[in-house]
Each structure stands twice: as structure tokens, then as C-alpha cells.
Specification:
alpha+beta, eight-stranded antiparallel sheet, Penicillin V Acylase, Chain A
């Protein structure tokens, strides 16, 4: 096995030498998601975790969007021309926004419904698109209208059936406190969704992971009615082959299924969480039973991984992010989160997004509770209505937002990458210390909130607000202090 991997890596190193832009190109598609069903976790919360990976000088903003009512006849203008009717009432949600980006935003609404996504290229080259199709707005419409993950899948499916999806392919990871689904969409009007079993964990890099499907089993599968027939028509599957139909083998861009920027990450994450190890050449499972009950710390460790302890650990330099074999914690990471979704607490604290800006390996995961009502000014820009209107304006935001928190975290990540071996150690120690205190304090804080909530909801929410502001400001100030200390120690940094 090790000799096989060494030969594989030698081949890709040759490719890297011939095509030096290869590594940067592929680092644009290194998103990563993990879903842990509620019966697979130590506290019976359903968890969905995601590393958002995008290349370039980008920005991350936060908004809290309230519930809203709309007059009859209100329309939503989709990005490429189509219009749809707005519903009478939309739900409140936290919005993690990346201005200018089509598919990089993440959401969590008042019901705990949480959505992220991973690029998954399809082989579709004859897509049916109506009025420009739908893309950016798909997850936003789900989060505004759905209470459950299943309901969100059905809403998205209806929109794709009507307009067609206007990008090569993607998997939407959709979770609520009780149930989670992966929804694989293909350019045009084809899609399929599979429920993650409550006692299992599912992992996805940047290729489809849904294999065999059974649309008659509506408890576990939903999808386009012609998902089989279309594949037969396009010669993507031979019904006389005596092999079971596999969605990913039929619809995926085949180069993605064993790509060096997918397989090592996929394999490493599975092996970190399962008892039944997988090997490089295996057909990895859609989901699996973990070796033990999962804690949020276990998932955070995966999101921070550079493939340590595997045959892919060695890197081209001292910076583990700089490697032709993609890391889970990669150079293009913009943020990573672990959403903890629970049904036994008030919604304001039942749903919490533990979020690390830029580098999950060196930056602490800190809690963003759904109940926050005011986003600290350092973490947001404009208001939520302006943010939506200007999302694709492509204006230069770096200068306008130079005082915002994101740039401090990015600056620290960039400096650290230049001298990772010397600058990461104290940061990791500091990260672990911050997280330990937050984890240790979580139960006590939430119990205080519940007691106060029972007496006075308004006071409880203000208590939560003050806690959130303290946590976020402490994280930001800590980052600034580390930057200042690095500059003192190494003036040219």
C-alpha cells in the first residue's frame, strides 16, 4: 500500500513540476463537510461541520436577518433573470456572507436548519436551463422557508425542476436538530438527495458521494423522477452491465472521484472517525458508524487536519498548507465551523455555530449562538439588505473594510504560513487554551441562560448578547496581540 502511494505521489509531483499552476488551481476546490447524526454524538446533538475554501483576497461578514413579512405579489429576482414569488413570511437566520462569491455563504435559521455546500463537478454538457436557472439563491430560499432539512430538500428540488441549476454540480449539506441530508445537484434539472442515518457520520470532499439510490424509499431518498432514465439515455450507465446503478459513477465528472485533491482528505477524515479503516483504492462509504460517540472537539480536529499520521503527511516545505496533496485545513480556507443543533433548549442557544476564521489549525473555534441580535461592528459591514443588494457588485472592499476583524485573522494566517514551524506552536497552544475554557464553561453558561429565560426572555437574550460580544471581542483582541508580539519579535513580519 505504501509503495502504491509513493508511486502515486511521484506521478503527481511530476505533474506539479510540468504545470506549476496546478496546485493553486485545485486549491480553489477544497471545501469539506462532515455531518454527524444525532445518535452518533456524545450529547445527542446533530452536528454539521464545514471548511469553506476559496482562493484570493476575500472577505467574510456576519448578519442576523430577522423574520419578515412580505406583501402579496412580492417577487425574488434571481441572479440571471428568472423571478419567483416570495412567500408571505420568512424565518430569521444567521448569514455568513462572502461578498462576490456565488456559493460560499453558510446559513443557520431559527429552527436550527443549517446549510453549507461543496463543489462537485458533473459530466453534464447538455443541461436544460430556464430563464438563466438558479444557483446563488437556492440555499437562501431554503433557509428562509424551511423548518426541516427534508422540507428544504423538497423546496430546492421544486426550484431545480422548474428552472434548472446553473452550475456544473454541487452537494448541499442540509441539517436540522433531528435529521440531515446531502442533496447532490447536477447542472440542469437533475438532482438526488440521501438522508444521513441518525447513528452515522457522513463526509464529503469535492465530489459526489451518493452511490446506490432507491427513490421508492422516500424515508431515505428523494430525487428527480428521471434520474435513472437520463443516465441510460446519455450512456452513463448500462442497465445490462449487471452492476447496480450508482449516482456518483453515472453523473460525476469522473476525474474528481479519485483526484489527489479529494481522495486523501476523504480517506483521512473517515479513518480519523471510524473503526473500520479504508484504503486509498476503496470505494468509500456514503456514511459510517463512528468508532465512538462523536464530540464537537473530534470534528474540529478533523477540520484542522493536514493529513498528519498518514502517508500523505510529508509536504514540499515547512508550511503544511503548501502541498500538491490537498489538506483538509487548506491554504484557501476562509472559515471553518461546527454547528451544534439541539432540540431540548430554547432556540436562542439550542443552535450554535462554533466558528474559526481562516485557519482551523491555529485559530480557535468560538461560539456564535443563533440568539445573537446585534453583530459586533468589527465583524459586519453594511446591513443585511444592503449586503444582499451589493453582494455581486464586485467593488473593492479591502480598503473600505480594513478595520474589520476578518483582515486581522487573514493577516495572521498569511504571516504564519511564511514561517509555520516557528510561528504555529504558540498559536496552537493558545487556541487549545481558549477552546478548553469555552467548552468547560458552555454548560454553566447555558444553564444560567435557561434559568433567566424562564423568568424574563428579554433579559436572557441580553445576557446572551453580552456573552457573545465578550467572546468575539476577546478572540479578536487575542489575534491582534499575537500579531503585535510577532512584529516585536520579528520586525519585518
Amino acid at each position: 500500500m505504501k509503495q502504491y502511494l509513493q508511486a502515486l505521489l511521484t506521478g503527481f509531483l511530476f505533474l506539479f513540476i510540468l504545470f506549476p499552476g496546478y496546485s493553486q488551481f485545485e486549491s480553489e476546490i477544497e471545501c469539506f463537510t462532515i455531518i454527524a447524526g444525532k445518535n452518533s454524538t456524545i450529547d445527542n446533538s446533530l452536528m454539521i461541520a464545514h471548511n469553506e475554501d476559496d482562493w484570493g483576497d476575500l472577505l467574510v461578514n456576519w448578519y442576523k436577518v430577522p423574520e419578515q413579512d412580505y406583501p402579496t405579489g412580492t417577487k425574488i429576482q434571481l441572479q440571471n433573470g428568472a423571478q419567483i414569488d416570495q412567500v408571505r413570511h420568512t424565518y430569521s437566520y444567521l448569514w455568513v456572507e462572502m461578498p462576490g462569491m456565488q456559493f460560499s455563504d453558510s446559513y443557520m435559521n431559527q429552527w436550527g436548519l443549517t446549510i453549507a455546500s461543496d463543489q462537485c463537478k458533473s459530466r453534464e454538457d447538455k443541461a436544460e436551463i430556464v430563464d438563466g436557472g438558479i444557483g446563488f439563491y437556492l440555499r437562501r430560499i431554503m433557509i428562509e422557508r424551511a423548518k426541516t432539512a427534508r422540507e428544504a430538500v423538497k423546496i430546492a428540488g421544486q426550484l431545480i425542476d422548474k428552472f434548472g441549476y446553473n452550475y456544473s454540480g454541487r452537494t448541499y449539506c442540509i441539517a436540522d436538530p433531528n435529521e440531515a441530508w446531502m442533496m447532490a445537484v447536477v447542472k440542469g434539472k437533475h438532482w438526488v438527495a440521501q438522508r444521513v442515518p441518525s447513528d452515522q457520520v457522513a463526509v464529503i470532499p469535492n465530489h459526489y458521494t451518493i452511490g446506490e439510490i432507491d427513490l421508492s424509499d422516500t424515508l431515505n431518498f428523494l430525487g428527480s423522477k428521471d434520474i435513472y432514465d437520463y443516465a441510460f439515455e446519455r450512456n452513463w450507465y448500462d442497465p445490462n452491465s449487471n452492476k447496480p446503478f450508482s449516482f456518483k459513477k453515472a453523473y460525476a465528472d469522473q476525474s474528481t472521484l479519485k483526484a489527489i485533491w479529494n481522495t486523501p482528505r476523504f480517506m483521512t477524515a473517515i479513518n480519523m472517525l471510524t473503526k473500520n479503516k479504508v484504503n486509498y483504492g476503496d470505494d468509500f462509504p456514503f456514511s459510517f458508524i463512528p468508532k465512538k460517540k462523536i464530540a464537537k472537539q473530534d470534528i474540529m480536529k478533523v477540520l484542522a487536519s493536514h493529513l498528519e499520521g498518514t502517508d500523505f503527511e510529508s509536504c514540499s516545505g515547512k508550511n503544511p498548507h503548501d502541498n500538491i496533496v490537498s489538506r483538509i485545513c487548506s491554504p484557501g480556507n476562509q472559515y471553518g465551523f461546527v454547528a451544534q443543533l439541539r432540540s431540548n433548549l430554547p432556540a436562542e442557544i439550542a443552535h450554535v455555530m462554533w466558528l474559526s476564521l481562516k485557519r482551523p489549525c491555529t485559530q480557535a473555534f468560538v461560539p456564535w449562538y443563533f440568539g445573537i441580535e446585534r453583530i459586533p461592528k468589527e465583524f459586519t459591514y453594511e446591513d443585511y439588505n444592503s449586503a444582499l443588494s451589493n453582494h455581486f457588485s464586485r467593488v473593492e472592499l479591502k480598503e473600505k473594510t480594513k478595520t474589520k476583524a476578518y483582515w486581522q485573522y487573514k493577516k495572521l494566517a498569511d504571516i504564519t504560513d511564511k514561517d509555520y514551524s516557528n510561528l504555529s506552536g504558540l498559536q496552537i497552544k493558545n487556541k487549545n487554551s481558549i477552546e478548553k475554557k469555552l467548552f468547560d464553561d458552555q454548560e454553566n453558561f447555558e444553564n444560567k441562560f435557561v434559568r433567566l429565560y424562564a423568568k424574563n426572555k428579554t433579559n436572557a437574550i441580553e445576557f446572551l448578547q453580552q456573552y457573545e460580544e465578550k467572546v468575539l471581542n476577546t478572540s479578536l483582541n487575542n489575534t491582534k496581540e499575537i500579531l503585535k508580539n510577532i512584529k516585536k519579535a520579528v520586525p519585518n513580519k
